[in-house]
Amino acid sequence: MIVKLAAIFFSMILVNNYVLVKFYGICPFLGVSKKLDSSLGMSAAVIFVMFMSTAVTFPIQIFVLDPADLGYLQTIVFILVIAVLVQFIEIFLKKYMVSLYNALGVYLPLITTNCCVLAVTILVVDDYGADVQTLGFAAAYIESLVCAIGSGVGFMLAMCMFSGVRKRVEVCDAPGPFKGLPITLVAAAITSLSFMGFGGIVESLFNVTL
Amino acid sequence: MAQEKVSKVSILTNGIIKENPVLRLVLGTCSTLAITTAVSNAIGMGVAFTFVLVCSNIMIALLRNVIPSKVHLPCYIVIIAGFVTIVQMVMHAYVDSLYTALGVFLPLIVVNCIILGRAEMFACKNTVVDSALDGVGMGIGYTLTVVLMATIREILGSGTWLGFQVMPKSFVTIGIMTQAPGAFLCFGLLMALCIWVEDKLDARIERKIGCQPLKDLQEGEDKE
Fold first, then answer.
1. pTM value surpassing 0.80
2. Potential cystine with A152: which of A14, A50, A161, B184 (Cβ 3.0-4.6 Å)?
């Protein structure tokens, strides 16, 4: 079990990296990665919201939507849960954890419409929903939470790596039309190329098939 | 009367070139990068996207005086999510292969910043007809851009176009173009080309990626 969880965690970070391989959350990746501290703040907020929303949506899918045969309502229910949760977290942090709110507050309104949060809640249901029958709810729940954290950490890794790349790109003398976003996208292509090298590493490292 | 007719046409064409959502406003980047691996996916996504955009624009324009401004965002999201669910069900029933190919990016239309952006910038302030035209224009602009990008990626990456072999058999395909790095590279080069043309026409605009709050954040960072 531990081995499988570790395999899920590392495969979400390296092989199935949400930003560079799967293209979820490109907007914050290109928009907020200019400085290391803002990319750290944004990714911390993303990890937090991803974990919380998966923790809420997975039981909703298993105990409410599936028994009532309402699977088609998944999109509406999940996005509403995420929107409410983000609002709730914002209010809670503002009231009880002011220092954390000061650090993450500006990023929270961006997260409701960030595709990586909705994507992770839908994908864990696709990937681990079937495990509820074979392994029981607790095991499937833990798997999906580990998957959510792994995806968030993968997002953070990509953001931090790219903010380093970007510092160099910003000062380089790019040809006229490439200045600004285009050269950043080309740099992202090369960063993404490096992540392709991780293909298959987790399977051989942990000796499991995912 | 003539004045009005011109303005209707300009609303429609606005989204295709002047405010092209992908290349000029830089919105909806995630789906653009992900679904342009094949032309068939791009067309399917473009049609689904246009349908949702037109319907949600019409609905939001109809309800623009009813929705309280304090909770406008959740209302918009529910309206958009409703139409996305319709598209999902129809596509699942009739074109299952496309449904599988687009995967999670179909429900992700809900959080696509083009649709939310148009709802907030246009549909909540304009009449139903204007909003519908704006939706059609933006949808066509998005579809044309993703089809163009998919054409480049599919021809270079697998030597085919819409499944037909167009390159000679001796052509060595560049596999990377249909994978993740090719998407970033193709998008970057296309945007550079777009800026080059703008420079020639003396119409270059400042580009900030993503939705409005993100753009505000970037501007704040630039000032520091």
1. yes
2. A50
